[in-house]
Amino acid sequence: MTGQRWTSQSINYLTPRSSESSDAWAEEASQKGSKGTQSILFVGEVTPPRIVAAELDLEPGGVAVVRQRAMYLDGHPVELTDSYYPVDIARGTRLAEARKIPGGAVTLLAQLGKAVAHVSESVNVDLPGPEIERALQLTSGEPVLVLTRTSHSREGEPVEVSVMTMTRGTRLGYEMKVG
C-alpha cells in the first residue's frame, strides 16, 4: 500500500454507521493521514463464482447481485472488492444501484432487517491474472492477498459475501475476546 505498513481491522467495515458518515474506507485512510476513495466498476445481477454461490446457499446457476468496486489510497489502486448479495434481499434496493450507499452496505442491510451478526473470513495469498494485475497496477508475478468474508444475519441467513483482492503490504488485524 504505497510502501507503508497498514493494518486493517474488519470490524470497522461490519458496524452500521450513520447515513451521514463518510464510508469506512475513507475514514480509516483519513485516520492514517491518507485519502481513501473508491469507484464503482459494475453493479448488476450475475451468476457468482462457485465458492460465492455455495456461501450464499444458491442453487447451481443461481443469481446474486454484485457490487464491484476499486479502492484507492492517495490515488493509487490498492484493492478490488466484489460484494455479492442474495437477489431477494438486494433487488429493488440501493444494493442493486450503481451509486454509493449512505452509511455503507452494512448500514443498509441493518435497515432492511438483515443486520450482520456473524462473520467468517478466509485469507489466502494468490498470484493474480493479467486483468487484476492491470487494475491494481502490479508487476507480473506480484502476489495479492485475497480476503473472502461471509456475513450472516441474526437468523443465520447469508446476507453478503465479499471477495477483496488487496495489494502487497496489506495487513489484517484480528482481536478476539476469550472467556
Automatic annotation (TrEMBL):
Membrane-spanning ranges: none
Start-end of Low complexity biased regions: 18-28
Chain segments carrying region Disordered: 1-31
UbiC transcription regulator-associated domain boundaries: 31-173
InterPro entries membership: Bact_HTH_transcr_reg, Chorismate_lyase_/UTRA_dom_sf, UTRA
Biased composition (Polar residues): 1-17
Protein name per its UniProtKB record: GntR family transcriptional regulator
The species this protein was found in: Streptomyces abikoensis
